[in-house]
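Let's practice the habit of predicting before peeking. Look at the sequence and jot down your guess about where helices and strands might fall. Then scroll down.
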Amino acid sequence: MSTTPSSDLTPTRALVLAGAGAAGNAWQLGLIAGLAEAGVDLTHADLVIGTSAGSTVAAQITSGIRPSELYAAILAEVVPPHGPGAARGRGPLSGPQYMEWSGGIIGESADPSDMRRRMGAAALGMDADDEAGSARWRAIVASRLPRQSWPEQRVLIPAIDARTGEPVVFDGHSGIDLVDAVAASTSNGFGGPYRIGEKRYLNGGYRRTSNADLAAGCDRVLVLDPFSGRSRTPSEWGMDLATQVDELRAGGSDVRTVFPDERSGDVFNANALDPATRPPAARGGHAQGRALAAELSGFWAA
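Done guessing? Here is the structure:
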């Protein structure tokens, strides 16, 4: 397991896939499919960085399944009647409850390291069947991945060690299964952290919003962020996407960001975990991708 990315070859094109629950996953897959149909294929990025819901997208688009098939699968989904908590499978979760739980911890914290330690301690203190809950969540994550082995291209998936609060970054050389890496990065801790052996992990978004900084050194960086660069942490912490973009550009990277437009509707909020948000988010992303293709074609192909 690596705590920082390493490679003998510096990739030239990086695709950054941020988190935002069920809606964010669907919007990104729709956008990628729309771009591909219009001639801009993001799936061959030299480096793919996926955080939380974005880690699922990273695993899906590097699986060999065409973006159009992934998009079609979303439109064919049957929304479960039991609501987002049961669909998520990680404790008594709802979007508003989770926002209140995590927001309280953020508000009590002095800095990002303190926040991660507090978040880990709170998650570890949950009265939950850690092993059984992790097994259930792993099964759900596995069902969403067309391929359950790491791809040949470089994929980075961040998470947080719940016991130490330290960030970790999984890749194909970490000795961790792809399913476990995605399950760790998508675990929010509300109901218990995700277990891998003796370790416990929390959502990779607590490392840094979107984790675009992991693309440092790449010539071109494209960031897809369903939450439009917003961060729930204080601006002085430098966790926000804008700060990371400034850092990347200072290092010589050409960076573009893509945020959802009105075509997806108002689905990127506390209810983003609700499966009912997926079809409109995917359709909006697909239309947006087709519309953006001409603008992004030269950037991505250069």
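How did you do? The chain has ten helices and eight strands.
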